[in-house]
Amino acid sequence: MIGYLILGATFAFAAAVQPGPLLTYLINQTISKGWRHTLPAAFAPLISDGPIIILVLLLLNQIPSWFEKFLHFGGAAFLFYLTYKSFYSWKNFSMEIPDESKKGQTLISATMVNILNPAPYLGWSLVMGPLFLKGYNETPLNGFLLIVSFYVTLIVCLMLIIFLFAFARKIGPRVNKITLGISVIALFIFGIYQLWMGLS
Description:
It is a single chain. By secondary structure, this protein is mainly alpha-helical. The chain has one domain. The protein is about 80% helix and about 0% strand. It contains ten helices and no strands. About 35% of the residues are buried.
């Protein structure tokens, strides 16, 4: 049970600090409009991921059990790819954010950004989906705890990032680079775990 809480929280932390469309949008909105305006957008994954989760789990329920091993290998490859991208971003870290501000309500805009982002689809089909089914088959509580720990951690991390960039001029870029570096390590460890799941 504790293991699924840790897995959900670990992947959520890594997902939250990954450079991508949603993170770029949140940072841009924070810098241009302030943290009060941007904070509700931290809940965007909770809204956008619902249809993605249902679709992915329905598809995963139709596959034979032996194919799950290949999904674990695919998940490991995906996580190692994210590790490489994160390491590259960490190595070339910059506080400069491109001007990508969008009009309209921040939460709705952030939700649309996340729906059009391939990362949730890949993350749920290759990592979270198989882990959820494995935990749920052991006991429904494990699957429930995995999802709860993932989304609680994800939303809290996104909120912290919004606060962090709101006060970025006072704190400086060093803290942001350290956070990204931690995510590189977390992704690599999670990739090793997925590889082990495929081999076992």
